[in-house]
Design brief:
Length: 465
């Protein structure tokens, strides 16, 4: 088995940065270099002010501070890192296609192919190439075909090593992983490559948690895991809609069914909907794969998970509009939270984007407050929708760092991210500043009904009538 001494990771994003930082921490004898062509992002990783790292994850800045400059490096010198590495992780973006065949469902693999071609061009000796990005089944074969036809006699082994990280707990998920999945070829060289990657993780994880499979099973397992988790969220959210029409309480229902050992309590918290980089993208990819094999009933089943999630977001926005007397034009609505979940600055597919967009269509005046998401990111998320001009987005939506002052003369507040700090706000002062009746729409079930109503709020908590 080849001993790994130098690792290169192409892609300094939400997966590559934290994963490589933990590997560097746990494997001090391995040189880990994270590379990206985005100089600004690399500069952020190399900043002296660790609070300005491009990614916010609890525990990440401490690890970067400990290992950076010792065996952890961030660089734009992609070719140099590829040339030196024994093992190369590909951790670049694989967004849903916005054009051509598979538009709106299939994964766009252009960045993966560019990485493969660059590795083929640069490599002078044998390499282990590890897919870390979430990829559709049989992507490894495409990478293998590119690398095997370079004509430079270099041997490549392709492994699939999908990530199972939850943003906000990524460092703990890496240090205490439920399992690590390594897929590769069932050949002597393929087995040696799988064992070499396993040896890296065995620095801190028990060997029995490291599962080896064929490459196709590994790739598909990632999509299926996320689909199952998203399915649970959409399932409980559809029941939250039913609860609001009856006297049922979604929290009591979640607790009751969660006690069933066959079901368990996780991912049964009703909310305004799931977001993040993986759930929707991976389900759409699964839908596309199923349709491409003529499995339309399978595709329809999983597509319904996305439909239910979109319904939850639109239902929440429509409830705000109808409760505010079916007109919100010129009304001031405060949005607490823009990240798709707490303890991350990731906004991809965030429910806040969809809700804000729906309210802006009704000409509401929106003020957003999020403790970790930048102003540029918020406006970029809205501009990407192309619902209205960038100028109009900036006219109708403002961003504040003062969540209490912002509520002066506001008509309503919508809580769209479950940041813990929202619970400690001075809600009595907020109530006194708002126009009456003062409404709070809690899309994350964060606050206490009795407390909010005793203050005087008209308080709506998702999943309760």
């Amino acid at each position: 088995m080849k001993k790994i001494t130098k690792i290169c990771c192409i892609g300094a994003g939400y997966v590559g940065g934290p994963t490589m930082s933990v590997i560097a921490k746990q494997c001090p004898e391995i040189k880990v270099t994270v590379v990206d062509i985005n100089k600004n992002r690399i500069d952020q990783w190399n900043t002296d002010n660790l609070d300005e790292l491009p990614i916010y994850e609890p525990g990440l800045k401490e690890i970067v501070d400990e290992r950076r400059g010792k065996n952890l490096f961030f660089s734009t010198e992609v070719d140099k890192a590829i040339d030196e590495a024994d093992m190369i992780f590909i951790s670049v973006n694989t967004p849903t296609k916005t054009y051509g065949k598979g538009k709106g469902q299939a994964a766009d693999l252009k960045f993966i192919e560019l990485c493969a071609r660059n590795i083929a061009k640069v490599a002078k000796d044998d390499k282990i190439v590890v897919e870390k990005s979430t990829l559709p089944v049989r992507t490894a074969q495409a990478i293998q075909n590119i690398l095997d036809n370079t004509g430079n006699s270099v041997k490549f082994e392709i492994l699939s090593n999908p990530e199972f990280l939850a943003e906000g707990t990524a460092i703990d998920d890496l240090l205490n992983a439920d399992r690590v999945l390594i897929g590769g070829n069932d050949t002597p060289s393929g087995q040696a490559a799988k064992d070499a990657l396993s040896a890296v993780y065995e620095h801190w994880l028990p060997k029995e948690r490291i599962l080896q499979t064929n490459v196709w099973s590994s790739e598909l397992s990632k999509l299926v895991a996320n689909a199952f988790l998203a399915q649970r969220v959409s399932s409980i959210n559809t029941i939250s809609a039913l609860c609001e029409k009856t006297d049922a309480n979604i929290q009591e229902i979640s607790r009751a069914i969660g006690f069933d050992s066959r079901i368990g309590p996780k991912f049964l918290n009703a909310s305004v909907g799931f977001g993040g980089s993986c759930f929707q993208k991976d389900i759409l990819n699964l839908v596309y794969i199923a349709r491409s094999y003529g499995l339309n009933e399978v595709a329809d089943y999983w597509e319904q998970v996305i439909i239910a999630n979109d319904y939850q977001k639109s239902r929440f926005a429509e409830n705000i509009i109808s409760t505010l007397y079916n007109t919100i034009s010129g009304k001031k609505i405060i949005i607490y939270g823009w990240a798709f979940k707490k303890d991350t600055n990731d906004t991809r597919e965030s429910a806040a984007i969809a809700v804000a967009d729906a309210l802006l269509e009704e000409q509401a005046e929106i003020i957003v407050c999020d403790p970790k998401v930048s102003e540029e990111r918020i406006y970029a998320d809205l501009d990407y929708l192309n619902t209205r001009s960038p100028e109009e987005n900036r006219r109708l939506l403002k961003i504040t760092n003062d969540p209490i002052e912002a509520t002066q003369n506001a008509h309503a507040i919508a809580i769209l991210t479950e940041w813990d700090e929202f619970k400690s706000y001075d809600w009595k002062t907020i109530y006194n500043q708002m126009l009456k009746p003062a409404f709070v729409f809690d899309g994350r079930r964060l606050l206490d009904n009795d407390t909010m109503e005793s203050i005087g709020f008209n308080y709506y908590k998702i999943g309760q009538s």
